[in-house]
Amino acid sequence: MRIEDLKQRHVDTGDGISEVLDELARHTLDPPSSSLRDRMAQGIGFVTFAFDIDGVSMEIAKYARCLTEISPGAPIHCIAGNFGEKADAILDPEWQRCRLEGADGWDKWDDGKWFARLFFEDLPPGSQQSSELSAEMWQQALVLAERLVNYIEDNHLGLLIIVNTNSNPGNVAYALAIVLATEVTGCAVINNNHDFYWEGGKAGCKRNPGEEPGPRDHFFRNHDNEEFFSFLQRIFPWNGRNWVQANINPVQSRRLIDRFHFHPDSVFTIGTAIDASFFDEPTPARKVENRRQMAHVLGGTPVIEPASVGRFQQTLGTWMADQAPLVCAAHRDLQLDITADGALYLLQPTRIVPRKRIWRDWELIAALLQYEPFRFVFDQRPEMTLTLHVSGPVPIEHRDAMDRLLDAYRSTLNSVPLDVGRRLFQAFSVGCQTHPSLTTKLDIVDIYHLADLVVFPSMQEGRGLPIPEAAAAGIPLVCSEYEPRAVFEEVVGMGRPSEQVILYEEFPDGAFPEDLLASLTSALLDPESQSERKAHNRKAVLARYSLDSLTDTFRQIVDRLDRASESQ
User: Fold this and answer.
1) Longest Cα pair distance anywhere in the chain, in angstroms?
2) Cβ neighbours of residue 209 closer than 8 Å, sequence gap 6 or more
3) Tens digits of per-residue pLDDT, 281-299?
4) Which pLDDT does position 276 carry in this prediction?
5) Residue 491 class from Cβ within 10 Å (0-12 exposed, 13-18 middle, 19+ buried)?
6) N or C: at which end does the chain have fewer Cβ atoms within 10 angstroms?
7) 3-state SS string over 233-270?
8) Which of the listed residues 413, 428, 451 is the one where a domain comes to its end?
9) Count of other CB atoms within 10 angstroms of residue 121
């Protein structure tokens, strides 16, 4: 089957799309003329919604380095709907880039028009609206598929690594296009799934009495439209003969096998790797220099003059459109020197999205300031400041999470005397590690080494990368025991030998117990008390999260794909 054949098809219903998918699942692929490793040597492509300074892009960079260990010298191609201004901090300069217009996701997919119509508006079965949307998805998919086919063939790509596009429906047309293009070309595919639409989501009719709505329930808005939902399930993810599934946790893998009937041989669980630079102990001078560099990013030289949080919240819409580094304070005319003695620094190394529950960080800080041993020292040392730094951006569709964070900050300011509140700061760097004023590039390791404490109160994670990263960097960590619980337990190493278990403080769902506040007070005010835990955590991470181990997993996957292509 060729792309020209698909272009001749008249498809204007969900059932029509399903018929095409049935044909693709049955059609005979031409046998490859060479081994997969030989084809990989010609080119390896990474396909996702967008590249920027985010966790998915960082993982892709690790995967690329693993695959070039397997296929030295193979050209790397990055294919996406958008490349953010900060993508240069993640992607190697020699990696080629292909921007596919119309391939970005969620609110950036044609300004969110189609995402809203698919998942926030009713699509009655058999209705004109349902047919019109199916026809639109088909036409958009054909355009994207043709561009993908041309790029794959022109650049002789032998392997594609698809990341999140066919697990989380941020752009249904793009996901369908990837299926069409890979089946037409016969290209081998590693489908890497960080999170699925059904994680934290279900149809209302499947919800138990009293069960709270989930953050991804919107994907099931039109669950009763069987022709629409059946083709959605087919491509998220696609069970192609040249595809293997590489999930980031075993819960996802088990569900694909047990519920969606994927063959166990085509389903892998893939870990992560922590870069060796995380384990380097920064000197005190280096830590001060990192903070000085970050001060430049945040608008200081190095003393920062923050914006009033009240004024910032009033103009938040303007900032959201063009996010730039910023520090907020209780009011104007305050200053912050994060290089000074007594400058406490808490790091939330994530984007600002609801499931991260970042507003809970300020609730923790408020509890610390009411805890007498901590408050006594804070009062006795008027030069002491406390900054909460959030390193990631705010997706446009999650402004509500930003509002809630700022409301929590203002609530904390209102709960303490003025002379305490004026020493509490909220910083946003939105991943700006390549600021023009920097004399050296700040990377993610440097960001961690700014911190006295890493805070991570997330409600749900596909993996939870900040946990091993903080442990490797030797930074004390307070984190929630998020869902799926089995994923959290795997990340921290529960059930493993004690020397492989990451030690952490638990971020509770409710009130903050006194023993937690005592432990965090010790970590912040007496860093030397953490030396034994720091050494333990570094050894635990080193034993489980090496680049060699991740490369070995990719070797197994490549071997599986190679055997599958030989048997066709």
Assistant:
1) 77
2) none
3) 888 898 898 899 999 889 8
4) 85
5) buried
6) C
7) HHHCCCCCCCEEEEECCHHHHHHHHHCCCCCHHHEEEC
8) 451
9) 11
| Rounded Cα gap, residues 511 and 2, in angstroms | 61
d(CA 154, CA 98): 12
How far apart, in whole angstroms, are the C-alpha atoms of residue 467 and residue 483? 14
- CATH number, position 223: 3.40.50
Q: Which residue has the tokens 């489908």?
A: 191
Determine the length of the chain. Answer: 568
Tokens read off for 476 = 């004390």
Paired tokens of 293 = 């560099």
Q: Is the pTM of this model over 0.85?
A: no
Which 3 state secondary structure label does DSSP give 210?
coil
Cβ atoms of residues 310 and 406 within 8 Å: no
Q: Can you name the residues that pair with 192 across neighbouring β-strands? A: 163, 246
- 199-237 pLDDT, tens digit per residue, is 988 998 888 888 888 889 999 999 999 999 999 999 999
How many domains does one find in the chain? 3
How much is the pLDDT for 42? 96
Q: For residue 415, which phi and psi values (nearest 5 degrees)?
A: -90, -5
* Residues above pLDDT 90, as percent of the chain: 77
Strand ranges (E), 9-110: 44-47, 50-51, 76-80, 82-83, 96-99
Residue 445 and residue 275: Cα distance in Å, rounded? 9
Q: Which of 507, 124, 547 is nearest to 348 (CA)?
A: 507
What is the span of the domain harbouring residue 231? 3-24+56-76+118-273+548-566
Q: Do residues 60 and 179 both lie within one domain?
A: yes
Token pair of 467, please? 């946990």
Q: How confident is the model at residue 2 (pLDDT cuts 50, 70, 90)?
A: confident
